[in-house]
Amino acid sequence: MIGNDLVDLQQAEKDSNWKRKGFMEKIFTRSEQFLINSATKPAQMVWLLWSMKEAAYKIHTRDTKMRSFAPASIHCANLVLHETEASGLVSYDKEHYHTQTAINSNFIHTLAVRKREQLQQFKVLIESYNPLSSAYRQRNPSSVSHHGRYLALVFMEYL
Amino acid sequence: MSMPVSFLKNITMDKSELTSRLKTIITTYTQETEALDHLNEQTDFIRDLKINSANLVDIVLDVEEDFGIEIDNDAMSRMLSVGAAIAIIETKLAAHDRK
Q1: Dihedrals φ, ψ of B28, to 5°?
Q2: Nearest C-alpha neighbor of B87 from the set B6, B18, B9
Q3: The whole model's pTM is what?
């Protein structure tokens, strides 16, 4: 199955102070902290790694029905970062997940899958979120994520 | 026989005081006033209080500061409900006293 996670960067900025003492150590591994500290845009790297972990975690929880809050045990690796996209590999509890992330100044969105080729089988639409409407459900998205101003809908591509 | 002040302070912190201090911390991170009004050990941070996972880290850090304890990542992984949080705080406070 797939998992996806959306971060509205404006909302994240408002809700979380990632520079708070102790915050990074609870969420990120040493090598992830190194990536953040050496990034030209540290905040972007924080939420990029965060969304990778969350997207992979969502698949894992659904598959195992196990709930556990251990973000630092979810490891991001093989990160390839471009201007508006990134890809990587996330490992958690002996399982591996491939991730594809879209990045811009407003949001970061990550799609996680079990097999790399599945990344091509899904299409992601980011729309503005209307808290009063659930009309998007009628379009039968495979996976949904919402944060702040945005709604992410993932659809399977019909070949 | 005299006991260290910190021991007396912690041993006299009953569950209701502990819960009320925890509730004060939680209040900052949730808008779910109804669930907050009916807060009990079964209350789930994510399902009932709709706390996002980044703020769950803030709660753990606030608890560490307020109670003067350290919550390791293993304990944090289980901290998904009010009851679990109380149990972890009690265990850490007791371990603190034995030192």
Answers
A1: -60, -30
A2: B18
A3: 0.90
Q: What angle do CA B38, A54, A120 make, to 5 degrees?
A: 140
**CB B64 within 8 Å of CB A22:** yes
What's the CA gap between A7 and A47, in Å, rounded? 7
What are the tokens at B90?
């009690």
Residues 6+ apart with CB under 8 A from A79: A35, A49, A86, A87, A88
- The verdict on a CB contact (< 8 Å) between A72 and B73 is yes
Contact A101, A85 (CB under 8 A): yes
**B47 near A CB under 8 A:** no
Q: Which residue, among B61, B70, B66, has the nearest Cα to B91 in the 3D structure?
A: B70
d(CA A34, CA A37): 5
pLDDT tens profile B11-35: 557 888 999 999 999 999 999 999 9
User: Which of B57, B64, B79 lies nearest to residue A27, judging by beta carbons?
Assistant: B57
Question: What ipTM describes this predicted complex?
Answer: 0.89
**Residues of chain B found within 8 Å of residue A58, distances taken between Cβ atoms:** none
Q: What is the distance in angstroms between the Cα of A159 and the nearest Cα belonging to chain B?
A: 36
Q: What tokens were used for B14?
A: 């009953």
Residue at B49: amino acid letter = L
Q: Which two tokens stand for residue A93?
A: 């509890």
b/e code A72-84 from CB counts within 10 Å (16+ = b):
bbbbbeebebeee
**Which of A128, A140, A146, A118 lies closest to A54 in space, CA to CA?**
A146
**pLDDT tens for residues B69-95?**
999 999 999 999 999 999 999 999 998
Helix (H) or strand (E) holding B60: helix B53-67
